[in-house]
Write a structure and sequence with these properties.
The protein has 418 residues and is of the alpha+beta class. It has 2 domains: 190 residues, no CATH class; 185 residues, no CATH class. The protein is built from 14 helices and 12 strands. Strand 6 and strand 7 form a beta hairpin. Helix 1 packs across helix 12, helix 3 packs antiparallel against helix 13 and helix 4 crosses helix 9. It is elongated, with a radius of gyration of 32 Å. The mean pLDDT is 79. Pfam families: FtsX (PF02687), MacB_PCD (PF12704). Keywords: Cell membrane, Membrane, Transmembrane, Transmembrane helix. One of its GO terms (cellular component) is plasma membrane. It comes from Candidatus Taylorbacteria bacterium RIFCSPHIGHO2_01_FULL_46_22b. This is Multidrug ABC transporter substrate-binding protein.
């Protein structure tokens, strides 16, 4: 029998049992849909995280106090007091770190901000520099839509001035056309609003829309009472100089802290490139783990196909005997039933791809609109190819046994079957 005729016979067999065929592929549809959902949403999450991290720029280097955490138990050691003003001054020296373009100490914490009777829980970030007026704009790529940033003189004087995020303006000044010059209270202290940020959203780990920016000297002296910093952010003069700059930072801080053994470092350094690579590895690993979990549905679907095909072979015993009686070979019967299984799973795979794509698109829109995230829909071409391949493979593997059972039937015994 020609392959074309075998294919036509297989398709005719599927059409004659539409309800059974639909139920047979349900497990495959669910499995492929789950894989498409996981891969699409995983890719969207990865892009979102990487976009936020890279919002600081590829030339940005972040120095963090404490030992670098190697596991969950180490995170208690992250927020330590190892970074002091002496370290900032040493890093600002060109003889120590020649390729550092900008250096900004950072201190942050949560505090309730109020204006009149309205209050809003904000993140207060103390930043700026006594050396550069535009350091916040240069590092974070943010700019006030009204007013301006505080300058070097404000930092030196520990001035009570603040730049507020767009969300903070909406919450505290919804009835005020221009908040510039107004005073807000942070931890009971009055701060004059000198700038309002344009809507920015998340940049790395900071949501500037919900943030109040003050000079780091003001945050240390008036708000948090700390003599140390939570971060020191350094911008390298060129991307090619990042490795050298990191090495210079380590040497400078180790000398300041009298550290001779790198294992005793009381600080660690992250670059945006390293952090992006790490998170990309984590999200990719997590995605593939979830794919493995979703593949269990494919295995269950494959067993269902094998059972249904075995039932189909039993019900069509007389058909098999008749076909063999008029000349069909064992190979023809084997090919026919194998093709039926492959067609079923391939159709299930395509339905799963379409369903998974549609659900992923809807969920991506919902996340973007509902949570205010820049969540992008990503169509996983590798997931679609994997879906078609795996579903067809399931048909071959789990349809092989029923097809072989059908091909081994004796034509005489099959024709006698009631």
């Amino acid at each position: 029998m020609k392959l074309k005729q075998t294919i036509e016979t297989a398709l005719a067999g599927l059409r004659s049992n539409r309800s059974r065929s639909a139920l047979t592929i349900l497990g495959i549809v669910i499995g492929i849909t789950a894989i498409m959902l996981v891969m699409s949403l995983g890719a969207g999450a990865q892009e979102l995280v990487l976009d936020q991290i890279q919002g600081l720029g590829t030339k940005t280097i972040v120095v963090i106090p404490g030992r670098e955490p190697k596991g969950p138990s180490d995170f208690a050691n992250v927020f330590l007091d190892s970074l002091k003003i002496r370290d900032v001054e040493s890093l600002q020296s060109k003889s120590n770190v020649p390729f550092a373009a900008d250096i900004m100490p950072v201190i942050f914490g949560t505090a309730q901000s109020s204006y009149g009777t309205k209050t809003y829980q904000t993140t207060v970030l103390g930043g700026g520099s006594a050396e550069s007026n535009n350091i916040i704009a240069d590092i974070f790529d943010i700019f006030p839509s009204q007013g301006s940033f505080f300058d070097t003189e404000d930092v030196k004087a520990s001035a009570d001035v603040a730049v507020i995020g767009n969300k903070v303006r909406e919450e505290l000044f919804d009835s005020v056309d221009n908040p510039i010059g107004q005073r807000i209270k942070i931890k009971g202290r009055n701060f004059k609003v000198i700038g309002v940020l344009s809507e920015k959203g998340q940049v790395s780990f900071f949501n500037f829309d919900e943030m109040v920016l003050v000079p780091y000297t003001s945050a240390q002296t008036h708000l948090f009472g700390r003599k140390y910093f939570d971060r020191i952010i350094i911008s390298a003069s060129d991307e090619d100089k990042i490795v050298q700059t990191v090495a210079d930072i380590k040497d400078t801080l180790r000398e300041n802290h009298s550290i001779s053994n790198p294992d005793d470092d009381d600080f660690f350094i992250q670059t945006q490139v390293d952090l992006a690579a790490r998170l990309s590895t984590i999200t990719t690993s997590l995605t593939w783990f979830l794919i493995a979990m979703a593949s269990i549905a494919l295995f269950v679907g494959g067993i269902g196909i094998m059972n249904i095909m075995l039932v189909s072979v039993t019900e069509r015993t007389r058909e098999i005997g008749l076909r063999k009686a008029i000349g069909a070979t064992d190979r023809d019967i084997l090919t026919q039933f194998l093709l039926e299984a492959v067609f079923l799973t391939a159709i299930g795979g395509m339905i799963g791809i379409l369903l998974g794509t549609g659900l992923s698109f809807i969920i991506s829109l919902g996340l973007s609109a509902g949570l205010g995230l820049n969540w992008k829909f990503v169509f996983p071409f590798s997931g679609a190819a994997l879906g078609i391949f795996v579903s067809s493979l399931v048909g071959l593997v789990f349809g092989g046994y029923p097809a072989r059972q059908a091909s081994k039937k004796s034509p005489i015994e099959a024709l006698r079957y009631e």
